[in-house]
Amino acid sequence: MPTPRQWRPGPYHPDPGLTPGPEDVAALYRQLRKAFEDGKNEPGAADFYHGECEMRRHGRAGTPKGERRLLWGYWLLSGYGLRASRALGWLSAAMLVTILLLMGFGLPKDSPKQEATGTVPASGGKITFEIDKDDPKNPTGHRFTGVRFEKALNVTLNSVVFRSSGQDPTTAGTYIEMTSRLLEPTLLALAALTVRGRIK
Fold first, then answer.
1. Average pLDDT, the chain
2. C-alpha 92, offset from chain centre
C-alpha cells in the first residue's frame, strides 16, 4: 500500500494516466499565482505560491533532489516564507537552546577581574601599573542561576541583532555565540519576510 508521502492517483481517477502529476499541478498553481499578482492581490498569490512550492517539493521528475531538499528545509523553517508563526517558533526554540547552552557551558565561572601590579624603580620612584585580565574559566558547580540566565539572555538577544554582548565567554561559549549569530538572524529575517508577504 502506498504511503501518504507518495504521490498517487486520486479516488476519482484510479488510472494514473488521468491523474495530473505534481509538475502539472505546479504549472497550474504558477499560472494562478501570476494572475493574482497581476491583479495586485499579493496575499492571494502567496497561497498559490505555497501550493506551487508543495508540488515542486513532491515532484520527482521535474525537481532535482538537491532542490527538493532545499524546498523541504524552507518549508520546515517558515512554510516557504509564508508561515510567520513557524519561523518565530523556530527562532524562540533556537534562542532557548542558546540560553541553556550558554548557561551550561558558555559563560565563565566568574567574571574575569582585572589585577594591577605596580613596581617602583629604585632610581626614580616612578610607578608602572600592568593591567592584566584572567582567561575565562569553564563553569563548575551550579550553572543554572538567575545571574547566569540574565547574562545568557543578554548574549542571545544581542546575537539576534548582530551586536556584541560585551561578555567574555569560554571557548565553547564563543562557538555557541557564533552559531547563534548565523542562525537566529536568519530565522528573524524569515519571520519578517513572512509578515511582509501577508500584509503587502
1. 78
2. 9
DSSP structure class, residue 142? -
C-alpha to C-alpha distance for 89 and 80, rounded to whole angstroms: 15
**Count of CB atoms situated within 10 Å of the CB of 79:** 18
159: exposed, middle or buried (Cβ count in 10 Å: 0-12, 13-18, 19+)? buried
Cβ-proximal residues to 98 (8 Å cutoff; 6+ apart), any chain: 152, 155, 156, 159, 176, 177, 179, 180, 184
pTM of the predicted protein model: 0.66
Contact status, residue 81 vs residue 45, Cβ threshold 8 Å = no
Residue found under cell 543578554: 154
CA angle, 26 as apex, 21 and 30 as ends, to 5°?
155
- What is the CA 157 to chain-centroid distance, rounded? 13
* Domain residue extents for the chain: 16-81, 85-111+143-199
Confidence band, pLDDT 50/70/90 cuts, at residue 134: low
Whether the per-residue pLDDT at 1 is higher than 60: the answer is no
Residue 130 sits at φ, ψ, to 5 deg, of -115, 115
